[in-house]
Structures
1.
Amino acid sequence: KQFTSIIHGKFAHEETIATASFAKTYLVVKDIKDATWVCDYILNGGATKAEFMKKFKNAHSDGFDPVKDLDAIGIANQTTMLKGETEAIGKLFERTMMEKHGVQNLKKHYFVTDTICGATQERQDAIYKLIDKKPDIMMIVGGFNSSNTSHLQEISEDANIPSYWVDTADKIDTDNNKILWRTSHGELRETENWLPQENLTVGITSGASTPDKVIEDVLEAIFQSRAKARVRCTI
């Protein structure tokens, strides 16, 4: 039976393109909102084929037909996407196919495969454990074009911990206690007095491909900024 690959990712990202190259028929969903829309289409129709194709323009294989190509699906993902969201999307499609075709027929219409990068998964698991310790500040170190690093920042932001994503130590002004950092949505911000004067715990993590030297330089910049006060860093 021919399965259509539902790929959790960004359709223009090189890793999504690589994953899609292994699939004959595929559809890329960016997030749980996209997935919910597709599942509603599978169960209830509602949207026309033209509306479906417009919504997912450039995010499907050539010749994709939502009327016939969503009868049997498999879940894959861009290797650097959030593991938790991929799992939620998989469960959503699983429930949808059970409701559509019956529990007894699920294996004929649904399967899931784990394509999350091992290093990415390790870092996502580790940051969840780190934020459970409730550090005062989180430092996220990695390239601003790194998808897996942006997800680490997103996890930390969602935990309501002050979180600063920098790509190099140069973003930390050690003389004036200022930092230029990036949000998970790509906005560059400058924060003054980002390191408070009292003692604090700083958690630090990095993207999967961040060189150790870059992390070391960021740590050194933090210590320089707090030369007259004690800083405890959790790595």
2.
Amino acid sequence: MRTMRTLSPFVFLCAVSTIQSNASFSQTPTPFPKDFSIHFVTNITEVDNKQYPIDGTLYYSWSSKSQRIDHAPGSYECIHFYNTTSSCSLVFLPTGGMYRLLGDGNCCLDLAHIGTPPPDWAARANPTFAGKVHDGYSNLDTLEWIFDNLTAAFTSTTRLAHHTTRQVAPSHPLAGIPVLFTFPGNANGRQDYHFNVTSMIVGQQDPSLFRLDEPCENVPCPPQPEIPTRTT
């Protein structure tokens, strides 16, 4: 049986924060650039204060309606969902599929009908504006939105029940760049993306990033075995 997962275009961690007045800020998330790349880290959790950052990169091309997310070996995404300690990549194509590409070259259609989100996906999701928040991991002042209208609440006793997103606050030269995207649930932050805001490069992406071997596009991924829960 495949491990259940929650889905959104991206993800965020609810770090220790300070809510301030909302009156002087736009309550609409800044759209993504049309084409860009940006680095991030995952495997950060607030539960036991353990931080083992694993690198990743997001390549986004609305020009080609494509997106690629690379995760380095050891990431929560690769281990938990694909049962591999190697690297893994998620490739979203204009055909509407999300493809899984593992470090050993194994490729298959993981999820159908999951396409690349448009640059203004966050505003379209009609999120609730949570105000100005200090992001503890990046040490940046940010604006936060909660996607309580995007999906049903996810049952969790350790963190917010909805996806959230944070962007650099207007007072910063890099205002509007994504800082954090979170998944709710039992990963407790390890699946969330903490973006390196100074690493964003705006511009056309290499088309080869979104090119898959032809057989891959027609091969569904096999079910993944249930991953046992650690007891020690």
3.
Amino acid sequence: RDVGPPWFMAHDHGGHPCKDGHHGHHGHQEAIDRSDPNASERHHFLEVCWSCLRFREDAMTEVARFQAVSNALPPEDRALWDTDVQEWVQKMGVGIALNTQFLAMLPTPDVCGAPMDDQQAMSVFQVPEGHRVAGRNASKVRTTLRQFVRDWAVEGKAERDATYTPLLEALGRHLPPPPLGSRARKPR
């Protein structure tokens, strides 16, 4: 059974584990056209797109893990932590829903570094059945969201200031801008 677009295929190892330790037919995908010099770039791009589209599943798994750990704490330990776990979980659910909507807008074939035919371009918007997002890709999606907050949101101002102000001040000391009204030379 093929999983995903026709140029990807789920493969079987005859019961032997593959590099990721799984046995048999399990939806692991690999490019089948090794002669295409763009296959690797296209595959990576699709993995990134599908990781964005599967953010909700990954985030909810993390919330459930946190909730299970916090629920397993003895009452005296839970009392030390001044947080209502149920309220926190509800707030996280709202944030996850908003981030999911935002991330769903990101995948677009227009920014792929490899040429795509129409079928490949359409696959950007639909995660193949049985596809599993690699943990490293899920982590990159979360990191990208944190960077968006840091660089653009009101909530990220303190981190943005702590990160960029020293750099901008150093740049200003070493490459001061020309005085207002002067005619600075344009770089060639």
